């Protein structure tokens, strides 16, 4: 019996062929959430870098697939019924760099998957001030920007200078603080936008 040449390869297999990161199917979310709860996600994709993330997002947009981005799952309550779609984990986007401008002003750039706690530790090690209010706040840089995390009367928007954002089709925009619409515990973003990195 001849094979159907028009048969399309399953989308998870397509994604595996385009990235070096992980593509997990029927993945229990309870293995990832900080609260240890949640049913199975249809597919979980963990790109190795921004370029792989761009490929994944562009591919899923063309297929009009349901997508949900996550960092390290801090304080996310995933339902027992699971997730019918593609979860994209940003946990590998965790590079942090510190540069000094003329006059000694420090500029810190951090990927969305970087731990906010690690970022605070780096500022302490470098003898820098301004991020102290983030000490003890769980989660990642991307989540902190997305939720405008804060404590002790200060918020992420007070120290952020710019953020890199990818839209639902994979286009990347570098946005200055003035272009970002922060609210109390929220950053207003278009549906499908993903915070890639931030500069403080």
Blueprint of the fold:
Elements: H1 11-18, E1 22-28, E2 40-46, H2 50-62, E3 67-70, E4 83-89, E5 96-100, E6 106-111, H3 116-126, H4 141-146, E7 150-151, E8 154-155, E9 162-166, E10 172-176, E11 181-183, E12 186-188, E13 194-199
Parallel strand pairs: 2-4, 3-4
Antiparallel strand pairs: 1-2, 5-6, 6-13, 7-8, 9-10, 9-13, 11-12
Report on the architecture of this protein.
- The chain is of the alpha+beta class.
- The protein has helices at 11-18, 50-62, 116-126, 141-146; strands spanning 22-28, 40-46, 67-70, 83-89, 96-100, 106-111, 150-151, 154-155, 162-166, 172-176, 181-183, 186-188, 194-199.
- It has a 5-stranded antiparallel sheet. The chain has a 4-stranded mixed sheet with strand order 1-2-4-3, covered by helices on one side. A two-stranded antiparallel ribbon has the order 7-8.
- The N and C termini lie far apart (62 Å).
- The model has no long low-confidence stretch (mean pLDDT 94).
Morphology call: globular
**Annotation field: number of helices:** 4
Rg over CA atoms, rounded to whole Å, is 18 Å
Q: What's the overall average pLDDT, rounded?
A: 94
Biggest sheet statistics? 5 strands, antiparallel
Strand order of the largest sheet: 5-6-13-9-10
Number of extended strands: 13
Percent helix, as a range, is 10-25%
Listing every helix as H and every strand as E from the N terminus to the C terminus, the arrangement reads: HEEHEEEEHHEEEEEEE
